[in-house]
Write a structure and sequence with these properties.
Low-confidence stretches: none
Radius of gyration: 17 Å
Oligomer: single chain
Distance between the termini: 35 Å
Structural class: mainly alpha
Order of helices and strands: HHH
Length: about 70
Amino acid sequence: MLPTTRPTVSRFAAIKALLLAAAFLSFLLSVGLFFLAEEREQGIFVGLWVPSILALGALMLVGEDKR
């Protein structure tokens, strides 16, 4: 029987994917609140999460190339 090899996803790739998904979902929620639900202030507040999530990702992934 041949050994099965699983494709390994690096920790950094998983973090990148998770943070990009969170930022994208935050963006969609913001647009939905702002335009569809007409909750403009809440839409703006949630929209501010996008750069915050991406900045967190940048801080977490600093030094990835050095490893």
